[in-house]
Amino acid sequence: MALLQISEPGMSTAPHEHRLAAGIDLGTTNSLVAAVRSGEASTLADEKGEHLLPSVVRYLPDGRVVVGSEAKAVEVTDLNNTISSAKRLLGRGIDDIKTLAGRLPYEFADSDSQVPKIHTVAGDISAIEVSAEILKTLKARAENTLGGDLKGVVITVPAYFDDAQRQATKDAARLADLTVYRLLNEPTAAAVAYGLDQDEDFDEKIIAVYDLGGGTFDISILRLNRGVFEVLATGGDSALGGDDFDHIIAEWILQQQGEHASNDPQKLREVLVEARRVKEALSLSDTVNVSINDWSDTFTAEQFAELAEPLVKKTLFACRRALRDADIDKDEVMDVVMVGGSTRMPIIRERVGEFFARPPLVDIDPDKVVAVGAAIQADLLAGNKPDTEMLLLDVIPLSLGLETYGGLVEKVIARNTTIPITRAQEFTTFKDSQNAMTIHVLQGERETVEENRSLAKFTLRDIPPMVAGAARIKVTFQVDADGLLNVTAEEETTGAKSSIEVKPSYGLSDTEIETMITDSMVNAKADMEARKLREQQVEADRTIEALDSAMQSDADTLLSDDERNVLLKAREALVLAKESANTDSIKDAIKAMETAAEFYVARRMDGNIRTAMAGQNIDKFKE
Ligand code: ADP
Ligand code: MG
Fold first, then answer.
1. CA pair distance 541, 420, nearest whole angstrom
2. Whether the CB of 54 sits within 6 Å of ligand 1
């Protein structure tokens, strides 16, 4: 458990200092910010008392940016400059969005960069910038309410977000000048809000999180094991949400209106707005009066249930599939958490309850629950609860890497990566006919081996004889939900394999982790310099090795004594430069050595061609 009981750098606080922290739910439709105040986590309202901030951003010609309901109100009249659902584009490349673009009302700018940009009157804007505006608004709200600067935030992301999408979310936070303690999976946040991680009666439990938002449906199956959340499976439909329920009511209205119905987009818009109102009102009463201009009718919960049936079924199919992917039986699920505004619909609660054969958790406002969980995490990470014996984390606290030639460390898994995780990297041999390779596993943030923590060392043997650089050695790092690391090395052409299991957190105290992280920041510049020096030294070795092996094979036939001496002099100068430990002198000496050897290289090449062509039909080489 030691791995999970860390505090972040600089966050182990003096007893009475309270650090301001917040949790942010950056949603597709709506976003929220929450904080723990007097021990209670709750969402924060704007001046008008609104908690939900519509995730809509409008760009004006004068460069002003409007965020939230004010932007949403004009969405239809200023489609091109009012951006909603930016979350769908976060971390996506030009190619990814081609399929999405057709469904979105924006003009995409032609851009050289891989990040798609939307053309607006205020210039070309990326989804990262749009998200940053939303985050800035929430940051200002939190700082006004809490009365001080935020020290850090936890931002939630869908469990299925990949690295690029997570990175884009972090970039947006950086643009908004926010310190991100960490990103947290939305379903995990919801489970935390309900305190499911605090349940002492179970070592392990399975939780289903059903999240029906405005435009997306996500189902996640989580396993909570001694305080660690592991995502077993995710599923859902990125094109199914509350909006679809609006549409079915709108269709009904249009049908009832008969000849009153119109194709005018403005009128259709009105119908949709009324449809949404009716849908939301039906969550509170069984019959609702529907009226548009001079037309009116009544609509009942029963009618709605019937029309909504195909949509409800779709979500339950996705639940079934996710359970199958997770290899979990329905009756193993011990808690069902409801998330997203659309789970207020009684029919959804009822059917989900039937499906899992247990009443779902609905006590916490379903559109606030994710932000609340994030706030609880943020408060813990800020160090405001020094007594808590355990921090719920689902990430690795320090980077894991390998020693490479020259005493340098190559990071394989970066710190704060969510676990469980598997990452592989390819390495190669440095010397001709090298038949073994030592795999040295390290933990920490620094650039050189001595300054990181050595976790394990093992040797991959039986590498077949090959020239330097030809072997393909795949090293795989696998960290499971308990934070256990398993490292495997395999030579890919022969399949020679070797592996070891290590516990990366063993023996490392909180303060040690902190020091390692702060050290890496303080020493970043010195480390970079050390790294450059090592790299040049490695390069020097490589050049010398190459010269030696060449001279060994053909110096006698290709070089005169004088020529040989010139090369040996350059070699000697390089050896001296390497010992001087001055990056620039080594660089220069390598250059000099290469220049001196140019004629030799050319001669060897000619020789090779001649050997290769000997006895061959010349025509063969003409094609
Ligand atoms: P997202 O996670 O996509 O940002 P939310 O969780 O905020 O979205 O959910 C927004 C959706 O919830 C909208 O479709 C909205 O109509 C729906 N919704 C909000 N309140 C109710 C209600 N009382 N009954 C039914 N649907 C509701
Ligand atoms: Mg949501």
1. 39
2. no
**Could you identify the atom of ligand 1 that is nearest to the CA of residue 29?**
4
Sign of the torsion formed by the C-alpha atoms of 115, 116, 118 and 119: positive
How close is the Cα of 374 to the center of ligand 2, in Å? 12
* Centroid of ligand 1 to alpha carbon of 558 (angstroms): 80
- 3-class state of residue 403 by DSSP: strand
Q: Is a pLDDT exceeding 70 seen at residue 478?
A: yes
Does the pLDDT value for residue 91 go beyond 60?
yes
* 291 phi, psi to nearest 5 deg: -150, 135
Burial classification of residue 286, based on how many CB atoms lie within 10 Å of its CB (0-12 exposed, 13-18 middle, 19 or more buried): exposed
Mean pLDDT across the stretch 186-215?
Answer: 90
Joined together, the tokens standing for residue 130 give 């749009």
Q: Return the ligand 1 atom nearest residue 366 CA.
A: 6
Residue 211 a catalytic site member: yes
Helix axes 583-596, 561-580, angle to 10 degrees: 170
d(CA 367, CA 602): 71
Distance CA 99, CA 224 (A): 36
Angstrom distance (rounded) from CA 620 to CA 265: 70
Confidence of residue 104 (pLDDT cuts 50, 70, 90): low
What is the set of domains in the chain, with CATH numbers? 21-241+306-395 (3.30.420.40), 400-522 (2.60.34.10), 525-613 (1.20.1270.10)
For 615, the token pair is 């006895």
- How many whole angstroms separate alpha carbon 529 and alpha carbon 447? 10
List, in sequence order, the alpha helices (H) in 478-597: 510-522, 524-558, 561-580, 583-596
Among 8, 25, 335, 491, the one annotated catalytic: 25
> H or E stretch including 275?
helix 265-281
311, containing H or E segment: helix 301-326
Ligand 1 within 6 A of CB of 29: yes
| Ligand 1 pocket member 156 (CB < 6 A) | no
Of the residues 87, 117, 139, 170, only one is catalytic, namely 87
What's the rounded Cα separation, in Å, for the pair 441 and 402?
A: 5
What digits encode the pLDDT tens for the residues 243-277? 999 999 999 999 998 866 667 777 888 899 999 99
Encoded amino acid at 165, one letter: Q
**Residue 15 burial (C-beta neighbours within 10 Å; 0-12, 13-18, 19+):** exposed
d(CA 257, CA 354): 35
- Within 10 angstroms of residue 33's Cβ, the number of other Cβ atoms is 31
- Conformation bin of residue 583: beta by default, left when phi > 0, alpha when psi is -120 to 50: alpha
**CA distances, 361 to each of 349, 371, 376, 540 (Å):** 9, 16, 18, 64
Q: Which residue, 441, 421, 417, is CA-closest to 503?
A: 441
How far apart are the C-alpha atoms of 505 and 338, rounded to whole Å? 34
Q: Is 87 a catalytic residue?
A: yes
pLDDT in tens, 282-330: 999 999 999 988 889 999 999 999 999 999 999 999 999 999 988 899 9
| DSSP-based three-state secondary structure for 87 | helix
